UniProtKB/TrEMBL annotation:
Transmembrane regions: 250-272
Domain DUF4349: residue ranges: 63-273
Keyword tags: Coiled coil, Membrane, Signal, Transmembrane, Transmembrane helix
Protein name: DUF4349 domain-containing protein
């Protein structure tokens, strides 16, 4: 009996030790899991920090269309226009249109510049130096990056589809009906590809060259417009020659109109003269 009781006590002790060991292992596992979670969260934070910096690296890849509209008062429109032309030539720019206006109040020259986008800011600073007074300067930008990427992606997809249809045309199209069907689809895809290429070229040109609308004007001393202009002596002589020539032309034209009557008059005059002699 004593041996049995000792065995039971020993068994109970062993079970107690095993239970304590299991609890300790679970707590250490929990601690390990918690430490892993912390490391993961830290790595996630570091990853977030890195992703926030990536857009700064991609700024140079943005597709931006720049344009400006400025109006400057200048001392002399002609001289200021020549200076602007020299600036545009120095930066490989050009004037797309030009309109000059002169009235009783002011002289004004309006023109549009097409300038390389990379030199847009430098050219704007250079042009503003001709101004005596800056009435306004408006600069606008338009981000077409998403549109540009979308057109590029669609174009790439269309080119891949075209390659697949060309492969089908070479290998799998056996009958005339198959050939005509594939060629029709290829023609339609080619039209879409050319349309996308045109859009891409248009966006590329708009991004590469910026537009600057410039108004240069100078004020002039107001003079009332006379109701009647007095002609000079030379102008009157010129008008006299012109009027005399016009009268001479009318005379000959009148003779041409009445030539039948002239002939009849001449014949009648000759007949009457002969009768009188008899």
């Amino acid at each position: 009996m004593k041996r049995k009781s000792l065995k039971r006590v020993l068994n109970l002790c062993v079970l107690a030790v095993l239970l304590v060991a299991c609890n300790h292992s679970e707590s250490s596992d929990n601690f390990a899991l918690k430490s892993v979670d912390v490391v993961t969260e830290f790595e996630a934070v570091e990853t977030d920090d890195i992703t926030t910096e990536t857009p700064k690296l991609e700024l140079k890849h943005l597709k931006i269309i720049k344009s400006a509209n400025v109006r400057y008062k200048v001392k002399d429109v002609k001289i200021a226009t020549e200076r602007v032309k020299r600036i545009t030539e120095a930066y490989n720019s050009y004037i797309s249109d030009l309109r000059f206006e002169n009235n009783l109040y002011k002289k004004e020259n309006r023109f549009t510049l097409k300038v390389p986008s990379k030199d847009f800011d430098v050219i704007m600073d250079s042009i503003s130096s001709v101004a005596e007074f800056i009435e306004y300067e408006n600069i606008t930008t338009k981000d077409v990056t998403s549109e540009f990427i979308d057109v590029e992606a669609r174009l790439k997809t269309k080119l891949e589809v075209k390659e697949r249809y060309e492969s089908i045309l070479r290998t799998k199209a056996k009958s005339v009906e198959d050939l005509l069907g594939v060629e029709e689809k290829l023609q339609r895809i080619q039209e879409e590809i050319e349309s996308r290429q045109g859009q891409l070229k248009y966006l590329t040109n708009k991004v590469a060259f910026s537009t600057i609308q410039i108004d240069l004007y100078e004020t002039v001393e107001y003079k009332e417009e006379p109701e009647h202009y007095k002609k000079t002596f030379l102008s009157e002589i010129k008008d006299g020659f012109t009027s005399g020539w016009d009268i001479l032309k009318l005379f000959f034209i009148g003779i041409v109109y009445v030539w039948p009557f002239i002939i009849i008059g001449i014949v009648a005059f000759i007949l009457i003269r002969k009768r009188l002699k008899k």
